[in-house]
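Take a look at this chain, tokens included, and explain the fold to me:
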Amino acid sequence: MTPPGSWSHYASPRHAMRRFLISCHGAGEQSGPQPPFRRRALPTRGLVYISEGCGAYDEYEPRGLRVPVEGPAVIWLTPGVLHGYGSDAGGWSEHWVLFEGEPFAAFETSGLGGRHRPVQKLVRPVEDAHAIFGELREAVAAVGPRAEIASSVATQRLLLAILDAVEPAEGATDGMTIVDRIAGGATRTLSVAARAAGVGLTTRELGEVVRAATGLTVNDFVIEVRIARAQSLLAETALDVGQIAARVGYDDAAYFSRVFRRRTGAAPSVFRRQQARTPID
């Protein structure tokens, strides 16, 4: 295993950067056996690119998942989700970035993982990863608007390179997997039968595809996607709870708040206080 060198840098991008672009809040690399993270929740999104080695990702309440990781692969970390991850005894090569920003939704729609797919297998190593992380190392360590823009550009280059290396999932159609298409339409108020018809499957076939990819029923998957988007909006915007509820597919803000609390363990207002980086008036 070729070590990438061990380093880490953190940043606090200004509010304008966090509002309009994908902003980078930290990056680093390390290799070999590492003490695992356990029961950690982040205030931002994160990605952990495992170029070599094996280990596992754990997600605690509310879902209780344990997903094996074999490089090359990416672990996607969602704000506020209690998680852990680590290599097996043989260690791994780990490259990570902390980031936030609404533009990430475009990458999710194009096929990157997220709340609904926390571990994503890649068909090949990420192209130019060494050069991109070299840029991130320099940019995140610097201070000022130019450095913040440079780290944003490097983060987006990394996301695009990961997208190019994503393993096509079973049931891929027109360059987008069935699961991605269901995720893309999750905020629409549709029955399971209507969602199945929209991707050319029977209700039973759709249920089998979604369960195989995520371990969830179609309805539970739709709720997970909605709640993940709501978490991002709470953390990254000043929209009120009613506006966020409407954006993620709920006409009734009170019902949305009950679902959100049941799924995350916190009311939307509490989640925002814990995770928001944009000042809320």
